[in-house]
Specification:
The protein is mainly α. 59% of the residues lie in helices and 6% in strands.
């Protein structure tokens, strides 16, 4: 019988195939980033107060090494009613050092963080499944998930959180593949836990719980590595503890405002309320149909999670329960899924997109056992491939629908992002008056907008005077305020919550 084995391909042909694959991946990566960065400054429109606060403090640090209050290199940044976390602000300050203050640069930082989070998740999925194709599916699913996409459009600290969490989990999976954890493993894990603590406020609850969960990986040979991880993480917490001791209540006052937990509340009531809030955040209707109702965080045209991702995660959890429950890695992901709900369950808000940001990361990773099971290609299991292809097609269709609706409706959120403020500010500049006076009601600290838009126009903070409550501006002063009306004044323009007037 003649030998029908195909002759080996020439080396040049193999190089062409590798080169073509590299170019395809590069083109796909560029298309993915374009998806995340398209219309960066127009959707969302405007710039919200918290975004101005973060951006201005980043600019101030880049420009002078101090925050808006003149404090040099602060660990946490004092804002209105809270302290903002440092990692995002210092990273943005580094970018502003190169580009100067810019809304585009700020938005691109968040979008790049969201994009990189999807890539890291894809690499982790590929490493877990040992299949680059499944890794590619994981990366694309993460890129197309509405939850992660919408958060990456905001100049908030939370935009970095999925990336930091994905990097920590990658480091953990890399470590758990070995019988003995090295000091490098411990250092990487402790650094990841530290970044999770300092990047966003939920990290002060979530990161210690994730650190505690490392006990699941205890073996005789790993004990030293895990203890070293805990010790290094404890060292990373020292600056936070010192800051909290020197600023009593600074890191907790905001929590007590938004939480049902009060010093006088009985613990039985706290436990009941926690269980109620915890279960409310698991509501499939909120996950798959409506999402959060705050249009700054989510455009309510559909849920925050894709239906196919939810189905695959449920199948994945079932596979873990039946076949992988003895593996520490999969138990840790189930534990991570459970504790990801805790920070949001401690507050009054129902299904808060930002405080639940760790949830979609764990759900995406829990789809891996389902993807691996459905990918098996023996003749008897071809039906699984049909199910998988159907779910991937559903992902593509729903993601395309979401993107169309996001770009159609997202630009209509001007009121939520205070799109009118630049018009008020431009009118103030046209008067030629210096300094400009700022007068705010406590609930709406619009002064930070003036500082930020002033930085965009090259106007120093010293050119603004903040008026204290019940203090009148001098005659003929030009005032930008958030009061509903002014007394003894000539109104120059009023837009939404902002008024510009000349004092008489």
């Amino acid at each position: 019988m003649a030998n029908k084995t195909k002759p080996p391909q020439p080396q040049s042909t193999r190089r062409w195939h590798l080169s073509r694959r590299a170019w395809l991946l590069l083109a796909g990566g560029a298309l993915g980033f374009w998806l995340y960065a398209a219309n960066a400054t127009g959707n969302p429109p405007g710039f919200y107060l918290d975004e101005s606060s973060i951006a201005y403090n980043a600019y101030s640090v880049a420009h002078s090494g101090a925050d808006e209050h003149g404090e040099s290199w602060p660990l946490y940044f004092r804002a209105f009613g809270e302290y903002k976390n440092p990692i995002y602000i210092y990273l943005l300050a580094l970018i502003f050092k190169i580009t100067g203050p810019s809304i585009l640069a700020a938005r691109l930082l968040s979008e790049a963080a969201g994009y990189l989070a999807a890539l890291v998740l894809g690499l982790l999925v590929a490493r877990i499944s040992r299949r680059y194709t499944i890794g590619l599916v994981g990366a694309l699913t993460a890129l197309l998930t509405p939850w992660l996409f919408e958060v990456s459009r905001l100049v908030f600290e939370v935009a970095l959180y999925p990336l930091v969490l994905a990097c920590y989990l990658y480091a953990l999976y890399r470590a758990q593949e070995r019988e003995r954890w090295s000091w490098i493993d411990a250092l990487l894990l402790a650094a990841g836990l530290g970044l999770l603590t300092y990047t966003y406020s939920i990290g002060r609850v979530l990161a210690p719980l994730l650190a505690l969960g490392l006990a699941m990986f205890f073996t005789r040979r790993r004990v030293k590595g895990i203890l070293l991880t805990w010790a290094l993480y404890a060292v990373a917490l020292v600056p936070l503890l010192v800051f909290n001791a020197n600023h009593p209540g600074a890191l907790s006052s905001r929590f007590y405002l938004i939480s049902y937990i009060k010093p006088q509340t009985p613990w039985t009531e706290v436990a009941w309320k926690f269980a109620e809030r915890y279960l409310a955040n698991l509501n499939p209707v909120r996950l798959l149909v409506t999402g959060e109702l705050n249009i700054r965080h989510h455009i309510p045209v559909m849920g925050s999670l894709l239906l196919a991702t939810f189905i695959l995660a449920v199948i994945g959890i079932d596979r873990i329960a039946h076949q992988h429950i003895r593996e520490a890695w999969w138990r840790y992901l189930l534990y991570g899924l459970a504790i990801s709900l805790v920070p949001a369950a401690l507050t009054n808000d129902d299904f808060h997109t930002l405080r639940l940001i760790a949830l979609p990361v764990f759900l995406l990773l829990l789809t891996v056992p389902a993807l691996m099971w459905l990918w098996e290609s023996t003749a008897r299991k071809s039906a699984r491939r049909i199910v998988l292809i159907s779910l991937l097609a559903l992902t593509a269709m729903q993601a395309a629908l979401f993107q169309w609706q996001f770009h159609r409706d997202g630009t209509q959120r001007g009121n939520a992002f205070e799109e009118v403020y630049p018009q008020v500010f431009e009118t103030a500049l046209q008067t030629g008056a210096r300094p400009l006076y700022l007068r705010d009601r406590p609930a709406l600290p619009g002064y930070i907008h003036a500082y930020w838009y002033g930085a965009l126009h090259g106007i120093d903070q010293m050119q603004f005077v903040r008026l204290k409550e019940n203090t009148s501006p001098p005659p003929n002063a030009i005032v930008i305020g958030t009061a509903e009306k002014c007394v003894n004044c000539q109104v120059l323009t009023k837009q939404q919550d902002y008024i510009l007037y000349r004092a008489l």
